[in-house]
Specification:
Layout (H helix, E strand, L loop, with lengths): L14 H22 L2 E10 L5 E12 L3 E3 L1 H11 L2 H22 L7 E5 L2 H4 L4 H12 L6 E6 H5 L2 H14 L2 E7 L6 H4 L6 E4 L1 H5 L5 H16 L3 E5 L4 H9 L4 E3 L9 H9 L5
Parallel strand pairs: 2-4, 4-5, 5-6, 6-7, 7-8, 8-9
Antiparallel strand pairs: 1-2, 1-9, 2-3
The structure holds ligand C2E and calcium ion (CA) (3 copies).
């Protein structure tokens, strides 16, 4: 079935049309995929800089398409956003990851409590019932609200900041914590940050990966970390791939990191095994 993929259009059609066809087929396939369980969740460890202590996981969506094989979120998330299917997909990821984590916790009550970090897209966060939907998932999965962290982009927050702030406050009242994702890539007006009910700031992997080649990035990251410190926010650096990056980040005062240097996103069974080795000492 491989030759049924998008490649066969390449010879005959201009690129735009090819892309439109691909997007449309993803769109119709997505309903089936949700119903038939083609989506799954992987978990990427978030670790403390000191001794690589496991602090939690970020849940990331994956799609195993029966004909096209693995499709990455960079392809299907934009389609899901455009068509509104992100509401259902996003809630499914939340529910699936909460129930996984709740199961692991029940199986290993001696393990250190971990944070589950879940992405909420702009469109999903703009939905009127989002706070209640999240509350219901927490109830249904019996996952403790104070162990859930939601990752919002600057765009999701700034689109309609008043509404966003109201929702963020309502979520925090449940015990949920909030991170701003991909920090530094959006409308980074530093002044708005202090007015937002935030707990955590994730430095975009673009800055982290350029730490070595471009010394000016070091100053940007230093500024972000010091800003976060001043506002009482924790910082997670994402996309940490090398020991040098980690070294520089630790010198700059970053507390947590996430990246291939420590672990790639992993299947639930592997994540569970990692938890077993993470007893409280
Ligand atoms: P993100 O939220 O910024 O997630 C981090 C991305 O960086 C993930 O890509 C992760 O696999 C990748 N990554 C982690 N460590 C490294 C590293 O050391 N090097 C490199 N090069 N990459 C690293 P992924 O899983 O492909 O997801 C891409 C984006 O898709 C995410 O970026 C997020 O914006 C979106 N996404 C994924 N799952 C979901 C979801 O369930 N809901 C929503 N709304 N968006 C999602
Ligand atoms: Ca994220
Ligand atoms: Ca991110
Ligand atoms: Ca990113």
């Amino acid at each position: 079935a491989k030759d049924q993929g998008p490649d066969r259009f390449k010879v005959f059609t201009p690129r735009l049309h090819e892309e439109a066809v691909w997007m449309m087929s993803l769109e119709t396939d997505m309903d089936r995929a949700l119903a038939e369980g083609e989506f799954y969740v992987v978990f990427q460890p978030i670790v403390g800089l000191e001794a690589d202590t496991l602090m939690g996981f970020e849940a990331l969506a994956r799609w195993r398409h029966p004909e096209r094989g693995e499709i990455l979120p960079s392809e299907f998330i934009p389609v899901a956003e455009e068509t509104g299917r992100i509401d259902a997909l996003g809630l499914w990821v939340l529910s699936e990851s909460c129930s996984n984590m709740a199961d692991w916790r029940a199986a290993h009550p001696e393990a250190r409590p971990l944070i589950l970090s879940v992405n909420i897209s702009s469109r999903q966060f703009a939905k009127k019932d989002i706070v209640n939907d999240i509350r219901l998932v927490l109830e249904k999965t019996n996952f403790p609200a104070d162990r859930l962290r939601l990752e919002l982009t600057e765009t999701a927050i700034m689109q309609d900041a008043r509404t966003a702030v109201r929702r963020m406050k309502a979520l925090r009242a449940l015990g949920v914590t909030i991170a701003v994702d991909d920090f530094g890539t959006g409308y980074s007006s530093m002044s708005y940050l202090q007015q937002l009910p935030l707990d955590n700031l994730k430095i975009d992997l673009g800055f982290v990966q350029k730490l070595e080649q471009h010394p000016e990035n070091r100053e940007i990251v230093r500024a972000i970390i010091s800003l976060a410190g001043g506002l009482g926010l924790n910082v997670v650096a994402e996309g940490v791939e090398s020991a040098i990056q980690k070294q520089v980040l630790s010198e700059l005062g970053c507390q947590m990191y996430q990246g291939y240097l420590f672990a790639r996103p992993m299947k639930p069974e592997q994540a569970k095994a990692l938890i077993m080795g993470n007893r409280e000492t």
